[in-house]
Protein: Ubiquitin elongating factor core-domain-containing protein
Amino acid sequence: MRAKRLAKLQAGSTSNPATPSPGPSSSTPVAHPKQKPPPIPPQSTTPGPPQCNVPLKRKSAPPVPKVDYQTWENNTISTVLKKSTAEATEYDLVWLKHLQAELESEAHMILTSDIVDRPLITRLELDAQAMSDDPEYVSVLASLPPQSVFEYLVGCWKCINTAKSTLLKKNPVSETQQATALLDKLRDLIISYTGLNLQEPEMFPQPADRPLSTLGSHELLTPMLSLSALSMPPVQPFLQDLAARFTDQDELLNTLSTLVCILVVHSLIIPSEGIGRSGGGSTWCGVIGGMEALMITRMPQWLGEGFGVEVMAMNFERLSRMRPLLRLGTFSRESPGIAQTYLSNPTKCSCADVDSSNASLRGTLSPPSSKSLTSSWEARERVLEYFVAVVCLNVKRAEMQVEPDTVALDSFMVNLQSVLLRFAEPFMDASYTKVYPYYFSVSTRIDLKEEMRIKATSNEAVQWVEESKPKAATPNFISDIFYLCNAHYGYIHMIQVYEDLGKTLDEYQRHHDMVAGDGSWMGMRQLSAYCVQLLDPELVFQYIGFTSFASTWLIWSVDPRGMHPNPVVELPLLKDVPMTFRVLPKFIIEDVVEFFLHSPESLDLSGKDELVIFALTFLTSTWYIMNPFLKAKINKVVFYGVLLYGNDRHGVLGHTLNTHPVALKNLIPALTSLLMVFSSEVEQTGASSQLCDKSNTMRNITYILKAIWDNPIHRDALNKEAQNVNKFIWFINLMINNVTYLMDKSLSELTQIHNIQTEMCALCGLERHASGYTTLGRSTAILLKDFTAETKGPFMMPEIMDKLAAMLDYNLNALHATLEYYTLYFIYLSPTCKMVIKMRWGPLA
Structure:
């Protein structure tokens, strides 16, 4: 077996020989030592005449004298291989006496590229434990460095890099092309024998004091696990040279499979303390850089199979080959030491210190490169299988209440989402037609049986799949990545976990003094640890780009012309909803909304226009979405966008809503339609919270209208909308109902507060509710005043005038006990409301 491997290597090295060097020169003896250059005579120090103080020109460095190629070739081979055919030589070179005799008999007086493999094999076959009758040869064996074969070959590889750098910088020979070819041949030869040593460490003699179980791949494991996070490790270029040499996938797999197996199961990669242990995570940074060069997609157990245990969501990341790359994180469940080590007291640290700690931690989280995982079609398919397996095993992460022990780790899922976003980057600026709309009719990668659709029942979805299968084509890789990115089990789920944790901490903060009565709780460390990974600027920016792409693609899929965003879709959309859109899972729209609800400030970077068009598309065409609460969520995103942010009085979306042509044309009709449709649909649900839901939606609309009220174009749009009398009367009727409900709730709860103040029962809760209802009621009453002042006609209609007067009368009667409240309320009435009251009951006292 060993002879076959050597023959194969020799055949490979001779099939592509380097540029032949000139023949040996007889004037250059082999064993003669190098002559020292003659001493340079000292320069005269006699001072010259005084000179004026002027800047001296910098002398150019003298040109390096060129060396004849034969000498350079011989010296380079000897230096790289650390051996010589001369007895009198430098201390770190090994004298190959027998090879010297063979070469002299063949008239090879110096070493050349044609015979470079012979001294290497001879050096590798030297055995320090061997016996010999030749005293000179015994001394050579006794002086061998205590190195393993792997250490010797790696030393040769480093010498090649040094020689290559010297050649490029100093150019010591004129025959640069021949010199480069020689170094490339040496590198190829060294890497070839390194691969053989990784597979079979016993092929060549090894030190007697080194057990065979610690040699070969184990020797490469040690430097990978001891690299500093701040150094530039040579492991990755070394592995890349291995991958370049063993272009045959089977050869590379045989060479590196043992190393990958050791890496995956090694206990030092992910210790129990996570990356927050002492040492700053220095032991695994080399693994991240090195494993990207390995063909791990072709490894056995790539999907966690073959270990004799059932592969489930909670153990998949521990069994699969991507474990070392995707389990790194800062979340408290898998890395409890992070919060204690880096974020011990985040509430008392300065923002600069917190940002510095976060940046340091984020710098250690390096997901694998997408190029290294999809270098071939076969690798691409294996990667897709991996992603699909993770998604299918973690369906439970979409549930309201998730048992942590039944799903994968949070950091594993977020890192996987980050990898998917990197895959999606190349097609973000491409045509939206690249994403296949019939994907779910032919692809079984993502199971949607338990998912709600945007506007289709389960039976309709099944029927659509059966009808579309015959004419559907095989989806491309871009479509696979797009729909896998939309699977909401990673980043979006962690956003919800983060917000729930924040709410829980707020409750603890209000009701318990957890630490020495200072009002702070240790759990703030956990919240800060979540921020490190979830608020990573690079990850957030990637998700903004993908979310903008996904929202634009959704609109393109329903555009009758199929040309959005160039030109922008015409609103409202057609009444006929395309079936390809109806059967899409609801979470595709919901995830777009959830991301911007979580971080509306991210719109300050990009995505404002895309979000406004997305929201107005489905608010003006509410029949495209079946779930009323999803429509309200879309409106809520716009509401968040007009809240005060920095110096923007109307938030990050205020300027866009007041300037974008689509908003100027469609915002007012969208808001009026939404309130009517949502109120009607939420009543059909029969939910006990429908009045509160309607009030919240009205509150959101109120704030949006405040942000655009001073814009004359929007005011003209409101007057135009008022010409549709039936629709506008319905809208006003809902506003009046809302004011009645809010005022009734606020006044009744104010009364309750007065009655139970002495008992102090549920005082805090009632005060929060009363203040909320009072604020909402006041803002809605002011909005009603503005509407009656601007559009008087509809309020004078018989069917609305009686109801408006009754509402005002009801609230005035409720307030009559306190003249102060009565006067205050009457001040906010517009002239139209006062006229209605006077026409109904006469002048007010």
Summary: DSSP finds 38 helices and two strands in the chain.
